[in-house]
């Protein structure tokens, strides 16, 4: 009778791979800005360790802090943290869908004057005057064949208002 694979002991190599993966996840968290870290749903003790790692400049101290972060990560469910990082990187399905929705709004706003009314109804905290200016500038750039600087600004504006 064969043993169930879930009941077999985990090899030392597999445990090391898992710990390295947790340290890598911690290293990715350390690279985020303090503002982004504040928005993530993290345990407070882990957030403090990450902020401390950002403060350190000595290579040895940083290496020890990263190992400590890896140790802390063992006691935390890392799947939700990995999902949040994927959303930040734009790899999650929800992040992609949000990106495409913002692109569709930008296209509608550039094509149709009535779209701004619909967008403002959906996002009442949006600044109508600033939006009109960005739309006007983006249309002018498009007509003159210039680089889409204002179109990018419009996208950022739509994204930032949508986050609120």
How would you portray this structure in words?
With 164 residues, the protein is mainly alpha-helical. The chain has two domains: 8-89, PSPTO4464-like domains (Diphtheria Toxin Repressor, domain 2, Orthogonal Bundle), CATH 1.10.60.30; 93-163, PSPTO4464-like domains (Diphtheria Toxin Repressor, domain 2, Orthogonal Bundle). 76% of the residues lie in helices and 0% in strands. It has nine helices and no strands. α6 (93-111) crosses α9 and α8 (128-144) packs antiparallel against α9. The chain starts with 11 loop residues before the first helix and ends with a helix. The model has no long low-confidence stretch (mean pLDDT 86).
| Backbone CA Rg | 23 Å
Strand content: under 5%
Task: Report the mean per-residue pLDDT as an integer.
Answer: 86
* Count of distinct structural domains: 2
Main β-sheet description: none
Order of helices and strands: HHHHHHHHH
Low-confidence stretches: none
| Broad shape | elongated
Defining key terms:
single chain, Diphtheria Toxin Repressor, domain 2, 9 helices, 76% helix
Q: What secondary-structure arrangement, pairings included, does this model have?
A:
Layout: H1 12-30, H2 34-39, H3 44-55, H4 59-74, H5 78-89, H6 93-111, H7 115-122, H8 128-144, H9 149-163
């Amino acid at each position: 009778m064969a043993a169930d694979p879930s009941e077999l002991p985990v090899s030392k190599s597999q445990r090391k791979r898992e710990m390295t993966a947790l340290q890598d996840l911690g290293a990715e968290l350390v690279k985020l800005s303090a503002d982004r870290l504040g928005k993530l749903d993290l345990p407070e003790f882990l957030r403090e360790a990450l902020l401390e790692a950002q403060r350190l400049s000595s290579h040895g101290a940083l290496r020890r802090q990263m190992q400590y972060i890896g140790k802390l990560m063992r006691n935390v469910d890392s799947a939700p943290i990995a999902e949040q990082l994927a959303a930040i990187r734009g790899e999650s399905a929800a992040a992609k869908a949000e990106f495409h929705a913002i692109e569709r709004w930008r296209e509608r706003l550039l094509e149709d004057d009535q779209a701004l009314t619909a967008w403002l109804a959906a996002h009442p905290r949006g600044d109508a005057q600033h939006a009109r200016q960005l739309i006007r500038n983006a249309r002018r750039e498009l007509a003159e064949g210039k680089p889409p600087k204002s179109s990018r600004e419009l996208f950022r504006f739509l994204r930032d208002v949508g986050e609120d």
